[in-house]
């Protein structure tokens, strides 16, 4: 069972770690490339702030973004701002998300995200947690996949394995960190490929943050994953 209260607390903790790390940057560092192709650190920070507001919209029954074009334009507009402006925006948008999460509501209701995707409201805090943790790594500011909380990494591997389950372009795959096993890919009587590695490397590959070269693969080549 998804525990939205636990996840809201985890979002607060992750946001504090992010704010501490960003506070150690300077204006020049904000303009430098992030680990996401084509995005500076400023783009990542702007996206994080606008994503918080977008998820407030979701929780309050409004469209997540006015449009895909508006989403992208807001990020491009805000990316070049100085560090202090980014920090203030991150704090204020995080506070708005926390307030929306604290409001009484039916957490079993279905909400709509981008591109017609729907989910349970109780999973929205976890989705925000994912945004904060993975984009903190994307900043290339000393926070790595190996630094992520263990319970987060395990849950996100499961979430992404579920996301690719049944996908016709992903070979039937068994994932293992040596103690836990997940299955993903299209349906088959038995997995065609077994992928083994550390949880950080498994998550990095599933989330498009690592190329999978550190993983061990048997039964065929490492499956190609569609973009998230």
From TrEMBL:
Where the record annotates domain MDMPI C-terminal, the positions are 147-226
Give yes or no: UniProt keyword Iron-sulfur: no
Q: Where is the Mycothiol-dependent maleylpyruvate isomerase metal-binding domain?
A: 11-140
Keywords from UniProt, A to Z, are:
Isomerase
Q: Which domain of life is it from?
A: Bacteria
Cross-referenced InterPro entries, in alphabetical order? DinB/YfiT-like, Maleyloyr_isom, MDMPI_C-term_domain, MDMPI_metal-binding, SCP2_sterol-bd_dom_sf
Pfam families in the cross-refs: MDMPI_C (PF07398), MDMPI_N (PF11716)
UniProt xrefs under Gene3D superfamilies: 3.30.1050.20, dinb family like domain (1.20.120.450)
Q: Name one GO molecular function term.
A: isomerase activity
List the source organism. Answer: Streptomyces leeuwenhoekii
Descriptive protein name? Mycothiol maleylpyruvate isomerase
